[in-house]
Amino acid sequence: MAKLFVIIGAVSGFLSVALGAFGAHGLNEKITKHFMEIYQTAVQYQMYHSLALLLVGILAIQWPDNAGLRWSGYLMIAGITLFSGSLYVLSLTGIRWLGAITPLGGIAFLVAWFLLAVAAYQSL
Description:
Blueprint: H1 2-27, H2 33-62, H3 67-93, H4 102-123
Helix pairs in contact: 1-2, 1-3, 2-3, 3-4
């Protein structure tokens, strides 16, 4: 579990940097300012939660049997996929109904952070 979260966190962080650079250099003149702001939000939240997923992976080395920590990691992955993924697709395609998926990713992030706090409380 720890290794999986560290690997996925690192790959997601890499992709966040790559997608951020692509947005800044390749999309700036191709999409509207409104959609560029949405794209940048996706990049920011992906990076924040990639770093959080790395933290979860590192903590999982210390607390390998903590179920809350494990679920926190899985929900971080789900949040990155649903929240940032839906915003990337929305900003590139303009398909507005994808915005309905974004809050599910936000909820996954919130629960993941809550479970991380509970895991730390239980283990410290």
